[in-house]
Specification:
By secondary structure, the chain is an alpha/beta fold. It contains eleven helices and nine strands. Strand 3, helix 3 and strand 4 form a beta-alpha-beta unit. The radius of gyration is 19 Å and the shape is globular. 38% of the residues are buried. The structure holds pantoate. The site of pantoate (PAF) has 10 residues, from strand 2 and helix 7.
Length: 281
């Protein structure tokens, strides 16, 4: 496994294998089983698997956890070598933003960036779209792999790729869960043992709402309010519980067939997100 920190070196490593299918898994490190499933999907579908590890400062707000975000490079590299990654791109901040963050071009996806998590985290999705666009330009992968846990991020990246005619296929990979149902996330590390058990309620609320909708619940606003109340009563500080059109993330109408039910809530020191899909007959 090659570990490179520099763009020219990365391109030099990939140039001899350009005729093969190159896959990219963008990450911020602190890898867990969810990331491993992305890497496995990549190695199955591609000849050469590149994993980037970059804690991207432009997607963190001023009061968010950029400084304290867990950085565990040695463990991450061991896990990636064990799971078949071929190349790890681990650039320092000044390689990604050599002219400074303030002066950098920003990619915005206005139709999706300001709703749900975007409302609670202004600027977050501009940072995500910008860094992912840069990684696509640096690696020029044939395919790129993102977790469905960050559903809004996945739909936003698909929209960016479509609107900017980027020659990359975006693959969504199902969420990996702990046995309690809690979606795997690096930010779960911020939870105490007791909070970690309680955090599984988010998934139970979402799957309960999914069941209600599948059984004919049409009043999505009431279902959202019930979910919000259950989480609040259990001590969560809820950002949203929302039933949305799965692709455009707008409020669904009676004709919408593919729904996504999403939630974001804070518990202890962690902001947790999760979602489930519903296909209407
Ligand atoms: O999902 C993440 O870990 C990040 O948002 C990503 C896609 C690696 C961009 O920094």
């Amino acid at each position: 496994m090659d570990v490179v920190r520099d763009i020219a070196e990365l391109r030099g490593t990939l140039d001899p294998v350009r005729h093969r299918v190159i896959g990219l898994v963008p990450t911020m490190g602190n890898l867990h089983a969810g990331h491993v499933s992305l890497v496995r999907a990549c190695t199955l579908a591609c000849d050469v698997s590149v994993v980037s590890i970059f804690v991207n400062p432009t997607q963190f707000g001023p009061n968010e956890d950029f400084a304290s975000y867990p950085r565990t490079l040695t463990d991450d590299l061991r896990l990636l070598a064990h799971n078949g990654a071929d190349v790890v791109f681990e650039p320092p901040v000044d390689v990604m933003y050599p002219e400074g963050r303030e002066n950098h071009v920003t990619i915005a996806v206005p139709s999706l960036a300001h709703t749900l998590c975007g409302a609670a985290r202004p600027g977050h999705f501009d940072g995500v779209a910008t860094v992912v666009a840069k990684l696509f330009n640096i690696v020029t992968p044939d395919k790129a792999f993102f977790g469905e846990k960050d559903w809004q991020q996945l739909t936003l990246i698909r929209t960016m790729v479509r609107q900017l005619d980027m020659p990359v296929v975006v693959e969504g990979v199902p969420t990996v869960r702990e046995t309690s149902g809690l979606a795997m996330s690096s930010r779960n590390n911020y939870l105490s043992d007791e909070e970690r058990q309680r955090a599984a309620l988010i998934n139970r609320v979402l799957t309960g709402m999914k069941k209600a909708v599948e059984q004919g619940e049409k009043d999505y606003a009431s279902a959202e309010a019930r979910g919000h109340r259950v989480l609040t009563e259990a001590g969560f500080d809820v950002d949203y519980v929302a039933v949305r059109d799965a692709e455009r993330l707008v409020v669904p109408d009676a004709d919408t067939r593919t729904l996504r039910i999403l939630a974001a809530a804070r518990l202890g020191g962690a902001r947790l997100i999760d979602n489930v899909g519903v296909e209407m007959p």
